[in-house]
TrEMBL record:
<dbReference type="InterPro" id="IPR017441">
    <property type="entry name" value="Protein_kinase_ATP_BS"/>
</dbReference>
<dbReference type="InterPro" id="IPR008271">
    <property type="entry name" value="Ser/Thr_kinase_AS"/>
</dbReference>
<keyword id="KW-0723">Serine/threonine-protein kinase</keyword>
<feature type="binding site">
    <location>
        <position position="49"/>
    </location>
    <ligand>
        <name>ATP</name>
    </ligand>
</feature>
<comment type="similarity">
    <text>Belongs to the protein kinase superfamily.</text>
</comment>
<keyword id="KW-0067">ATP-binding</keyword>
<dbReference type="InterPro" id="IPR011009">
    <property type="entry name" value="Kinase-like_dom_sf"/>
</dbReference>
<protein>
    <recommendedName>
        <fullName>non-specific serine/threonine protein kinase</fullName>
        <ecNumber>2.7.11.1</ecNumber>
    </recommendedName>
</protein>
<dbReference type="GO" id="GO:0005524">
    <property type="term" value="F:ATP binding"/>
</dbReference>
<dbReference type="InterPro" id="IPR053235">
    <property type="entry name" value="Ser_Thr_kinase"/>
</dbReference>
<dbReference type="Pfam" id="PF00069">
    <property type="entry name" value="Pkinase"/>
</dbReference>
<dbReference type="InterPro" id="IPR000719">
    <property type="entry name" value="Prot_kinase_dom"/>
</dbReference>
<dbReference type="GO" id="GO:0004674">
    <property type="term" value="F:protein serine/threonine kinase activity"/>
</dbReference>
<keyword id="KW-0808">Transferase</keyword>
<keyword id="KW-0418">Kinase</keyword>
<keyword id="KW-0547">Nucleotide-binding</keyword>
<feature type="domain" description="Protein kinase">
    <location>
        <begin position="20"/>
        <end position="148"/>
    </location>
</feature>
Length: 148
């Protein structure tokens, strides 16, 4: 009897360096995939961005490591394997703005909520520009939302 194929968004859980458990894929971009992970030391969920070593210059990683702003996902660490760099990031539980807007379950967004989201995105972008960083890929799928 054959087993059903594993869906593309599912990744068999595996431990990374005994520190993190790699779970299901939660995102995919030009440079790699993002998985929901579990920090085995404290039980917190994390996001683990898996990037091919040839796709990320060291200077990009240095930039990510040094960013610190309330409206930018926090860098928590990184691990290297033979073929990939795993960037450990804060897990943002509500997902992307695109996922909230696309289903259109709530009808048109109230203007006050739109203003709130735009203000927070702009605060993050101003901070990035002050650090000499240009994001280059601002879109709903890359804007993550929290409960706050």
């Amino acid at each position: 009897m054959s087993r059903p194929p594993v869906p593309a968004h599912h990744h068999k859980s595996k431990a990374l360096d005994g520190k993190y458990m790699l779970g299901d894929e939660i995102g995919k971009g030009a440079y790699g995939r993002v998985y929901k992970g579990l920090d085995l030391e404290n039980g917190d969920f994390v996001a683990i961005k898996q990037v091919s070593l040839e796709n990320i210059p060291q200077e990009d990683l240095n930039i990510i490591m040094n960013l610190n702003h309330k409206n930018i996902v926090k860098y928590l660490g990184s691990l290297k394997t033979k073929t990939h760099l795993h960037i450990i990031l804060e897990y943002v539980e509500n997902g992307s703005l695109a996922n909230i807007i696309k289903p259109n379950k709530f009808g048109p967004f109230p203007e006050t909520l739109v203003v709130l989201y735009i203000a927070q995105v702009l605060e993050g972008l101003v901070y990035l520009h002050e650090q000499g960083v240009i994001h280059r890929d601002i879109k709903g799928a890359n804007i993550l939302t929290t409960k706050e």
